[in-house]
Amino acid sequence: MKRPILIHPDPRLKKVCDPVTDLSDDLRALADDMLETMYDAPGIGLAAPQVGVLQRLIVLDCVKEEGEKPRPIVMFNPEVVAASDEMNTYEEGCLSIPEQYADVTRPAEVTVKWIDRDGNEQSEDFGGLWATCVQHEIDHLNGKLFIDYLGAMKRQMITRKMQKLKREKARA
Fold first, then answer.
1. Residue 6: per-residue pLDDT
2. Which end of the chain has less neighbouring CB within 10 Å, N or C?
3. Rounded to 5 degrees, what are φ and ψ at 138?
């Protein structure tokens, strides 16, 4: 089931999420809904707070090549356990901040550990777009948006655009 995506500024997007302590069928269903919502948007990552659920859950799939097999990943309680000194800059966007993009610099490679949908602990090294995406989504779980990496002027300009967009949607 597709879920509505919260648009910035929404106070739920700035909250630190609670760890998942019990991997319930409801949470697995939420993960499935989030994947469907992410693919439909279309996006490459989605965090639970973006659909109004303040739990430490993200989904991602950075496979973008036409005809290449999708690789959806569901992460409960994801955590960066190691990051490279080398940095990468990517133009980032966010489903909660539609049609706004900015360059963000993050570690080029990260090691992430998480619990999968079957309750097993996983760990993987990510580089390139995958590394950027997983860090971006984990930031959401900590109440941080990609615009928080920008200067105050640019951040305020984007926030005003989002407030206007929300007013226009409310009238529609």
1. 97
2. C
3. -65, -35
Q: What is the three-class DSSP state of 16?
A: strand
Has residue 169 got a pLDDT over 90?
A: no
First to last CA, the chain: 23
Extents of the domains making up the chain = 11-171
Separation of alpha carbons 172 and 157, rounded Å: 23
Tokens representing residue 55 in the block = 């739990």
Position 121 scores a pLDDT of 97
Q: How far apart are CA 79 and CA 75, in angstroms?
A: 9
Task: Summarize the confidence of residues 45-68 as an average pLDDT.
Answer: 95
CA–CA gap between residue 139 and residue 33 (Å, rounded): 20
* pLDDT confidence of residue 105: 97
66 pLDDT tier (thresholds 50, 70, 90): confident
Cα distance between residue 143 and residue 20, in whole Å: 16
Which active-site residues does the annotation give?
137
Name the CATH topology of 11-171. Answer: Peptide Deformylase (3.90.45)
